[in-house]
């Protein structure tokens, strides 16, 4: 039995790697040798990663203590590689190296440069923020001299700003509600800057003086009359209004009652002329925007049926002189229309 116990003990010792149990049987480890092997394996791993990444330092490379890469030819600290290796696409020229750019990237940068040149063409060196109110601003106007600005919004308020008399608080010098509970859709100074045209969601446009005092209000037509030429004013909300570019007392309005109306500031009882908006089949069509040509000889309007029509401002107004019935999608609103200075080009916007 003793021989069998000794044989079993020797078998356990050969398998487990020690000769006995207890304090005397504890294994002895060479700590310095273990650290040296760990350091060597770390250096070999760092070298293998550097070779795979294609890092070139211009000379014989070595690995110092702690796994740091070092150059054998350069003693300059700026040439040492610190941190992880460079990503693919970067050269070995140091910190000044740039990634390779594709043609698409170059075109994007060219577009950004073009946009920056376009923005720098505007006087953007100084900027102020004028607080109109909490609700959106729906109309803006500036007098011809550039000394005053007028703003109107969905809060039914019109504010007048004077740059010469403005202090650091940037407050408006007057705030009025000219059209009661109707949002402001058009604000425009006359060509001399002494009058302001105000159009809102109501059927009556207003003319204010330079300081915002009421000067003239257009009359409202009788809505039960079928023929709109027999009414003395609009019977439905006004969508747009503008001054004549040559005659300072004349202005134009358009409305959902399918008419354009020419007005004179000195004639307060009735409009001068009425233009009916009609589609291709001769049916009535509401008018969403209007304007004069730069010389004042033509009137242009955008209709809800998608057409753009032009009339001579001197008349007759029975039929449009020029028209394009397929300018926009039928049933949409043409929110803006303007003409070039040579009166040969017209631009419109569909909302």
UniProtKB/TrEMBL annotation:
A Pfam family this chain is assigned to: WD40
UniProt record similarity statement: Belongs to the WD repeat GAD-1 family.
InterPro entries: WD40/YVTN_repeat-like_dom_sf, WD40_PAC1, WD40_repeat_dom_sf, WD40_rpt, WD_repeat_GAD-1
Compositionally biased residues, Gly residues: 56-66
PROSITE patterns xrefs: WD_REPEATS_2, WD_REPEATS_REGION
Keyword ATP-binding: no
Swiss-Prot/TrEMBL keywords: Repeat, WD repeat
Residue windows of the WD repeats: 130-162, 231-273, 280-312
Gene3D superfamilies (UniProt xref): YVTN repeat-like/Quinoprotein amine dehydrogenase
Domain of life: Eukaryota
UniProt-recorded name of the protein: WD repeat-containing protein 70
Bias (Acidic residues) ranges: 103-116
Example of a GO cellular component annotation carried by this entry: site of double-strand break
Region described as Disordered: 39-119
């Amino acid at each position: 039995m003793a021989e069998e116990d000794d044989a079993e003990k020797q078998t356990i010792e050969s398998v487990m790697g020690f000769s006995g149990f207890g304090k005397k049987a504890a294994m002895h480890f060479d700590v310095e040798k273990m650290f040296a092997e760990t350091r060597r394996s770390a250096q070999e791993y760092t070298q293998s990663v550097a070779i795979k990444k294609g890092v070139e330092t211009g000379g014989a490379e070595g690995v110092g203590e702690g796994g740091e890469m070092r150059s054998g030819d350069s003693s300059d600290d700026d040439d040492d590689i610190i941190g992880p290796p460079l990503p693919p696409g970067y050269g070995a020229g140091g910190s000044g190296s740039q990634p390779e750019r594709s043609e698409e990237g170059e075109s994007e940068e060219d577009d950004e440069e073009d946009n920056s040149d376009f923005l720098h063409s505007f006087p953007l060196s100084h900027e102020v923020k004028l607080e109109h109110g909490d609700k959106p601003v729906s109309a803006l106007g500036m007098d011809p001299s550039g000394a005053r600005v007028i703003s109107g919004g969905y809060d039914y308020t019109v504010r007048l700003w004077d740059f010469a008399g403005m202090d650091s608080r940037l407050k408006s010098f007057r705030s009025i509600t000219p059209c009661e509970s109707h949002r402001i859709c058009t604000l425009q100074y006359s060509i001399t800057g002494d009058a302001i045209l105000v159009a809102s969601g109501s059927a009556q446009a207003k003319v204010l003086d330079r300081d915002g005092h009421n000067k003239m209000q257009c009359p409202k037509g009788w809505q039960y009359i079928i023929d709109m030429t027999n009414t003395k004013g609009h019977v439905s909300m006004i969508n747009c209004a503008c001054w004549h570019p040559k005659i300072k007392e004349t202005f134009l309005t358009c409305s959902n009652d399918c008419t354009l109306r020419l007005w004179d500031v000195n004639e307060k009882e009735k409009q001068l002329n009425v233009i009916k908006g009609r589609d291709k089949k001769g049916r009535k069509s509401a008018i969403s925007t209007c304007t004069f040509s730069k010389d004042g000889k033509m009137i242009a309007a955008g209709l809800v049926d998608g057409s753009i029509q032009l009339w001579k401002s001197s008349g007759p107004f029975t039929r449009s002189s020029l028209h394009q019935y397929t300018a926009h999608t039928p049933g949409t609103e043409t929110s803006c229309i303007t003409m070039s200075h040579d009166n040969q080009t017209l631009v419109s916007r569909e909302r």
